[in-house]
Amino acid sequence: MKQRDSSAQAPSPVREAEPRAWWRRTGFWISCAAVALLIGVAVVFITRDEYVNTYTIPSESMQPGLVVGDRIEIDPHAYDNDNVQRGDVVVFDSSGSFAPYQSRTALQRFLDDMLEDLGLRADPHAMVKRVIGVGGDAVECCTANGQLRVNGEPLSEPYLAEPAPPGRASMDRFTVTVPEGRVFVLGDNRHASEDSRALLGSAGGGMIPESKIRGRYLSTR
């Protein structure tokens, strides 16, 4: 009687080991990718406080106080328990007012926000201006002396750039009443600033929602 060759039935240890080795290699690279992702997320959050509340001045609209290239820091919690005050210099989101809304996917928003937080990409919608009127204020240009008038009182503005022509706070004449929950903002370099005056005839009348304010100016770095 012929004996069965048991060696022919034995599985090949090499063939069995190959799938395990492949999985180990794949698992190793997956683990490396996961660790790298976690490190990247950690870096974003660690550096967020350093960059998310700083902005670079891109134009001459806030001269002489703030000049092109100045890096400013804001207080994002300034209005958590306080109201916006006339004279405050604020950074706000101009999308939907000075800048049109842009359709972006969730991934695009995430990547854009991450790059902005890391200071690797400027926020194209961030603008810095001075609050001239708050909810309920009547703002008018101009008195016989060329000053703005807020609630019937001439407004002293020592922070203004040298006006052109001298003596006028604005070349545009206007009378507006600021709705509750909004602010009327102007640049200090009044004759080289795109601000609330540019939107007087549009929806919202150039008034910025308080919810769009990202913070109050603290200092220049």
From TrEMBL:
CDD domains: S26_SPase_I. It catalyses: Cleavage of hydrophobic, N-terminal signal or leader sequences from secreted and periplasmic proteins. It is a single-pass type II membrane protein. Residues 34-217 form the Peptidase S26 domain. Keywords: Hydrolase, Membrane, Protease, Transmembrane, Transmembrane helix. Its EC number is 3.4.21.89. It is found in: Cell membrane; Membrane. It is an enzyme of class 3 (hydrolase). It comes from the Bacteria. The keyword Translocase does not apply. The keyword Membrane applies. The chain crosses the membrane at residues 28-47. InterPro entries: LexA/Signal_pep-like_sf (IPR036286), Pept_S26A_signal_pept_1 (IPR000223), Pept_S26A_signal_pept_1_CS (IPR019758), Peptidase_S26 (IPR019533). One of its GO terms (molecular function) is signal peptidase activity. It holds the Pfam family Peptidase_S26. Belongs to the peptidase S26 family. This is Signal peptidase I. The lineage of its organism: Bacteria, Bacillati, Actinomycetota, Actinomycetes, Micrococcales.
